[in-house]
What does this fold into?
Amino acid sequence: MAEQDIKAVVKDKYGKAALRVTSGEGGACCGSTPSRGEADPITSNLYGCSETAELPAEAVAASLGCGNPTALADLRTGETVLGLGSGGGIDVLLSARRVGPTGKAYGLDMTDEMLALARDNQRKAGVTNVEFLKGEIEAVPLPNDTVDVIISNCVINLSADKDRVFAEAFRVLKPGGRFAVSDVVVRGEVPASIRRSIELWIGCVAGALSEDDYRAKLAKAGFTDIEIEPTRIYRAEDAREFLAGAGLDADAIAPQVNDRFMSAFVRARKA
It folds into this structure.
């Protein structure tokens, strides 16, 4: 699928997800699966009650990620944070509270419906040190050396031009700035047909990188101190219902996918 086609599909699906939240139907990641329950192995139990207690219910319902980058990024008072693909705004709003009134949190999203939802959530939460920007993660609408920390919650895997995403992230970070994102990462080889099905289950993945490719692309962009820490590892059993609906035999493919797909926390630094 061409880059523009991937972008159009992602934009359409996430726009519809935002509208479902707005209408009170809840969200499903990229519209690829039914609304996920509390036991979902990808999206469940990512945030503590103390984190979400002061946020609007719509911000929590619109959380379509696979991690909690704000809890792992070690945000500090007074820092400026940029959330790539900020969606309904949950990670940006949490970041804004962590950096305090002397800090700032930007959220970047290309989907009008998500931006409208995020800004409404910001208003309801009463958080003032936040600014939501319209744009694409491959072309960040901020000057060079602007932010201290970049976060993202399982969005970079949706991009068809990850080299550009990493180059833009490097550009807008200040010297010494930190890249601290949650993302889907692949370990080892997976047959293409099975990979596509598993990626769809994980959430409209245009092409999750292997662990080695992720490291190589970050290094190519100029990043150092690259670390990839698994946070959740997915198994065929987790996707059994979806695989059955796709006409695949979970028992037959289990040896080829078990432990190969994971949510990971990816850290790197701009020297």
About this structure: The domain at 3-269 is CATH 3.40.50.150 (Rossmann fold). The beta strands are 80-84, 104-109, 130-134, 147-152, 173-186, 209-210, 224-234, 261-269. The radius of gyration is 17 Å. The CA atoms of residues 196 and 205 lie 8 Å apart.
